[in-house]
Automatic annotation (TrEMBL):
<feature type="binding site">
    <location>
        <begin position="7"/>
        <end position="12"/>
    </location>
    <ligand>
        <name>substrate</name>
    </ligand>
</feature>
<feature type="binding site">
    <location>
        <begin position="149"/>
        <end position="152"/>
    </location>
    <ligand>
        <name>substrate</name>
    </ligand>
</feature>
<dbReference type="Pfam" id="PF01725">
    <property type="entry name" value="Ham1p_like"/>
</dbReference>
<keyword id="KW-0546">Nucleotide metabolism</keyword>
<keyword id="KW-0378">Hydrolase</keyword>
<keyword id="KW-0479">Metal-binding</keyword>
<feature type="binding site">
    <location>
        <begin position="177"/>
        <end position="178"/>
    </location>
    <ligand>
        <name>substrate</name>
    </ligand>
</feature>
<feature type="binding site">
    <location>
        <position position="172"/>
    </location>
    <ligand>
        <name>substrate</name>
    </ligand>
</feature>
<keyword id="KW-0460">Magnesium</keyword>
<dbReference type="InterPro" id="IPR020922">
    <property type="entry name" value="dITP/XTP_pyrophosphatase"/>
</dbReference>
<feature type="active site" description="Proton acceptor">
    <location>
        <position position="66"/>
    </location>
</feature>
<protein>
    <recommendedName>
        <fullName>dITP/XTP pyrophosphatase</fullName>
        <ecNumber>3.6.1.66</ecNumber>
    </recommendedName>
</protein>
<comment type="function">
    <text>Pyrophosphatase that catalyzes the hydrolysis of nucleoside triphosphates to their monophosphate derivatives, with a high preference for the non-canonical purine nucleotides XTP (xanthosine triphosphate), dITP (deoxyinosine triphosphate) and ITP. Seems to function as a house-cleaning enzyme that removes non-canonical purine nucleotides from the nucleotide pool, thus preventing their incorporation into DNA/RNA and avoiding chromosomal lesions.</text>
</comment>
<feature type="binding site">
    <location>
        <position position="67"/>
    </location>
    <ligand>
        <name>substrate</name>
    </ligand>
</feature>
<keyword id="KW-0547">Nucleotide-binding</keyword>
<dbReference type="InterPro" id="IPR029001">
    <property type="entry name" value="ITPase-like_fam"/>
</dbReference>
<comment type="similarity">
    <text>Belongs to the HAM1 NTPase family.</text>
</comment>
Length: 200
């Protein structure tokens, strides 16, 4: 099955490919594709907007996810604005720096947090399946590790002293919000793991 991932972020496409393995051919959005609206107040609303927006523009099913870090001590920030926490066009480093400063402004070296991931698959004008998952843990005021992307250098999942950025991809996928959501997606959408019928 060919699935378009609603992103041009190569890190995200690679992570989905690592989690799903060979059960689907995953491709990123064409570079000329316009940007989908992300005006929802929840991860699920934003994932649904993106999935339907791109599904009306490509022929294959579209898998859209919206994910981010939620820190209750910071009023839920970065939340649905995780990718643009430090402003439009901000990169991972700037977003991480802003989060570290926000923690320190509160006098916090670490705080309870969770990563959330909502996934929506749509085809043409119809939503096929929606799933959502999260992983609890701690966010820290100093980055560690060189792996992963986003807020991975600042987040350690519950029961682990290491940050996501200190784990191999295989280790991270045991815990991560995206991996948990994909496993739920595979349960809820059998077409994703169904083998193609042999051609006569």
């Amino acid at each position: 099955m060919r699935i378009v991932i609603a992103t041009q972020n190569p890190n995200k496409v690679r992570e989905f490919a690592e989690i799903l393995g060979s059960c689907a051919e995953l491709v990123p959005l064409p570079p000329s594709m316009p940007k989908a609206p992300e005006t929802g107040e929840t991860f699920m609303e934003n994932a649904r907007q993106k999935a339907l927006f791109y599904a009306s523009r490509v022929g294959d099913p579209v898998l859209a996810d919206d994910s981010g870090l939620v820190v209750p001590a910071l009023g839920g920030a970065p939340g649905v604005r995780s990718a643009r926490y430090a402003g439009a066009g901000a990169d991972d480093q700037l977003n991480n720096q802003k989060l570290v400063q926000a923690l320190r402004d509160k006098g916090l070296r670490q705080a309870e947090a969770w990563f959330a991931c909502a996934i929506v698959v749509a085809h043409r004008d119809r939503v096929l399946v929606e799933v959502e998952s999260k992983v609890d843990g701690l966010v820290h005021d100093e980055p560690r590790g060189e792996q992963g992307f986003g807020y991975d250098p600042l987040f350690s999942p519950q029961g682990e002293s290491r940050r996501f950025a200190e784990m191999s991809a295989r280790e991270k996928h045991l815990f991560s919000h995206r991996a948990l959501a994909v496993r739920e997606l595979q349960t809820r959408w059998p077409a994703l793991t169904a083998k193609a019928e042999p051609k006569e």
